[in-house]
Design goal:
Helix content is 40%, strand content 15%. The protein is of the alpha/beta class and 440 residues long. A hairpin with a 2-residue loop joins strand 11 and strand 12. The longest helix is centred in the N-terminal third of the chain and has 28 residues.
């Protein structure tokens, strides 16, 4: 049984073909910077790097658009409208992006590797199917010489595939996985939840040959990680939004429940970022000193990498002197200390106590999406929904206690009475103990 990250699997598929020069994969930041460079060199500023990167991944690669005519015919449902001239301009930027990647020393992206792997696996499966037809036509006998001549026994890569976190896979990933296993009973088993989609991948599985409707699909409604108080608060973050079921139908959290009970989430308001960080440090110190919660069992969610560095500095500085470590791509960078990371880094983790910081209007959702409210309403709705999902994922990482803080105005995603019922962060700084009501 192979257990692998989908991007690692894609890379292995490509590397198995002789003469393949993958190039060094760019991380997300470097890929975005390259889009900025391409736009600057072309003098084109109509579209930002986020839009172009998503268009490249979710339209060009997802639909195998290898030429301009193919891109002009591509379905862009849910991504707003582009006139023909605009599509031509976008395609020119895509070609320039590919050309820059090919410049020595060559680079690539994980999306391009997945696309290449999908094409290779589809070709391999076509050969498997052709071999099976040939064998059937010749009476079903083993064709040793024919198969040996191919350099390998032609067969599907896997008999069954199990996919976790299905909502975060791209169309190229799904095309690769579909080609790795023959269609049949129990060919692909997947678990996913569009409410937890923190990336921009939006696919319709039925269009990719993966059918989940009817008896093949089950809704899971019982949460074992967190308490009903935290779950109820987190569910409110995505209430009223329309989420898909990873196919053409919709899904909701009706009936979603927890078997655990515990503390109600706390809300804290602060006039500025510095006061908010110091208040969080005071709350963490109180949980550790009064209730014995290990530092390693507590985590602070922040909006971005800069905020993570500032939070770590605040915790480690006098008078708190709290050990802290940032969450990297591969997990905590140290075995000791309070975990600090962006909301994306919280994916797949859980902690006894979680502090969601910076839940301020303009941060969640980020104010930059306002540029699309009028010009591209479809993109605006998608970005707002993704911001809700990211916050939902971070909130549900808390097992026993969730503390939400902000500075300035609270995010519009929070309950209407959040500002009125919130504690004042300034009250923590003179030395008064914060209300905890917890013996955990």
């Amino acid at each position: 049984m192979d257990i692998k990250h989908v991007d690692r699997l894609a890379r292995e598929v490509v590397e198995q073909h002789p003469g393949t020069d993958l190039g060094r994969p760019l991380d997300d930041t470097a890929a975005m910077n390259l889009w900025h460079t391409v736009c600057t060199e072309a003098g084109e500023y109509t579209w930002d790097a986020d839009f172009l990167d998503a268009e490249f991944k979710h339209v060009v690669l997802a639909q195998g658009c290898g030429t301009l005519p193919a891109y002009l015919r591509a379905d862009r449902e849910g991504r707003g409208r582009l006139q023909r001239a605009e599509r031509v301009a976008v395609w020119q930027l895509v070609e320039a992006y590919r050309a820059r990647l090919a410049e020595p020393p060559s680079h690539t992206t994980h999306a391009l590797i997945a696309d290449r792997a999908a094409n290779l696996e589809a070709h391999h499966m076509a050969r498997v199917a052709e071999q099976a037809r040939y064998k059937e036509e010749h009476g079903g006998v083993d064709l040793i010489h024919r198969e040996a001549g191919s350099g390998m026994w032609l067969k599907p890569r896997y008999r069954h595939i199990v996919v976790d976190e299905a909502q975060d896979l791209s169309a190229a990933h799904w095309r690769m996985l579909r080609a790795m296993v023959p269609k049949g009973l129990d060919d692909i088993f997947l678990v996913g939840d569009a409410h937890q989609r923190i990336y921009a991948h939006r696919v319709v599985l039925g269009r990719l040959g993966i059918h989940t409707r009817g008896r093949a699909s089950r809704r899971l409604t019982l949460n074992y990680r967190t308490t009903r108080q935290i779950l109820g608060s987190a569910t409110g973050l995505v209430a009223g939004e329309r989420f898909d079921d990873l196919d053409d139908e919709t899904d909701d959290l009706t009936g979603y429940r927890s078997v655990l009970t515990g503390l109600a989430p706390q809300f804290w308001r602060a006039p500025d970022h510095q006061t908010e960080m110091r208040a969080v440090a005071s709350l963490i110190a109180e949980r550790h000193e009064r209730h014995g919660t290990p530092y390693e069992a507590m985590a602070v969610s922040v909006p971005d990498g800069d905020a993570a560095a500032r939070m770590a500095f605040t915790l480690q500085s006098p008078p708190y002197r709290i050990p802290a470590c940032e969450l990297g791509k591969d997990g905590p960078r140290s075995p000791d200390g309070v975990r600090i990371g962006t909301r994306y880094r919280f994916k797949g983790l859980e902690f006894q106590r979680v502090f969601l910081t910076g839940v301020s209007e303009g941060q969640i959702p980020h104010q930059r999406i306002e540029a699309h409210r009028i010009s591209d309403p479809s993109r605006y709705r998608q970005e707002e929904q993704r911001a809700r999902s990211v916050l939902f994922v971070a909130a549900t990482r808390a097992r026993d206690e969730l503390v939400v803080t902000w500075n300035g105005r609270p995010s519009r995603f929070l309950p209407d009475d959040a500002a009125r019922t919130a504690y004042s962060a300034g009250e923590l700084l003179p030395g008064d103990g914060p209300p905890s009501a917890s013996a955990a």
